[in-house]
Amino acid sequence: MATTTKIEPRALVRASGGPRYAVALAVDALGTGMLRPFLLLYGVTVLRLSAPATGIAMTAGVVVGLVCMPAVGRWLDRGARSTVVAASMLVRVLGVALLLAAPAGHVWLFSTAALFLGIGNQAWPVAHAALVATVAHGRERDAALAGGRALRNAGLGAGALLATACLAGGATALQALAAVTGLAYLGAAALAWSVRLRTHPAAHPDRADGPAPRMRALLAANVIYVFCLNVPEIALPLVLVTQMHASPVWSAAIFVANTVLVVTLQVPVTVLVSRFSRRTVLALAGVVIAASYLGFLAATSLGHGWSAAAVAAVSVVCTIGEIVYAGSATALVTALAPAHLLGRALARFQLSTGFGLAVSPAVITALASRGSAPLWGSLAAATLLSASAVATEKGSRHQRIAT
């Protein structure tokens, strides 16, 4: 089995789509980081909409974005690559333009803007993974996907910090942030389109390999796995502030630490585990994440003086599990799917990811209202069951060799 034993920055950039594409990713992530965390505030503060109406519009945008995934997958399978990436950025430019044009109290324009932003946000991961899978192969592709995630998290974090610093300016500052975000998306789209990468489906020799793998266990397990992505943002702040009555500083520190660890460790950890099969690594990620959930359960039972610090320590384990999961899940899908059906396979995977991210806040808050044991115990049990399903799912001989 081929493994990657060292990281060469130039080779990693080349495998990720080249320097221009890397700059496009960074600019796009910076813009997303500036707007996405404060879109709700924009609707409430600038457009003077009610919080429920704003939240419903944002949720509808996510749902419509997921509904569009099959079409994105088919477009990719016709050979498009950089064009789809650029389109995912341009549709968000339209969303930002509608935000800026919407008058106060106009919920429909905000809803339409959220719809376009949702489509772009859901389409981008699929298009990006397909582009990287076309440029790079084998374990180099895994490292390139990990590098893209690290770069994107760095851009998201930097954008969020810039936006936070500007919030004191009120509604005017939020409008300025939206305008800058739109310009960032436009610049990123131009850079991505300039890469001019596409494939020719008829040239793929594996067209006779049959339909795309069903991956039922993998897709079902992924819905549970992605809960870990909302643990630093939703579960831990909820537990720390409302149940443990700890300072909000702990939640902020955990979120910052999570971002820093992902940025610095995503590529090295992905390279480190490349000596094992992707399926084994993904199952291991579930075990690590489940262990961290049990760790959170133990930490919350400690005395008031130690529990917050213990939760922060366990969050590092959860982040390691997240890093291992993120470095192996998409890579496993790209290894399983025949080249001519890669787009549709990635679209199905994004559907499971988006669904998990959409339902996890409601599930987490509902479980948390019943106490720490139902929350962390249920999450640990579901994640262990998912890891077992991933490890035991059977495929064709070709698929087993590929993974």
TrEMBL record:
Its main location: membrane. Keywords: Cell membrane, Membrane, Transmembrane, Transmembrane helix, Transport. It is found in: Cell membrane. InterPro entries: MFS, MFS_trans_sf, MFS_Transporters. Pfam families: MFS_1 (PF07690). It is a multi-pass membrane protein. Signal peptide: none annotated. PANTHER family: MULTIDRUG RESISTANCE PROTEIN MDTH, RESISTANCE PROTEIN MDTM, PUTATIVE-RELATED-RELATED. This is MFS transporter.
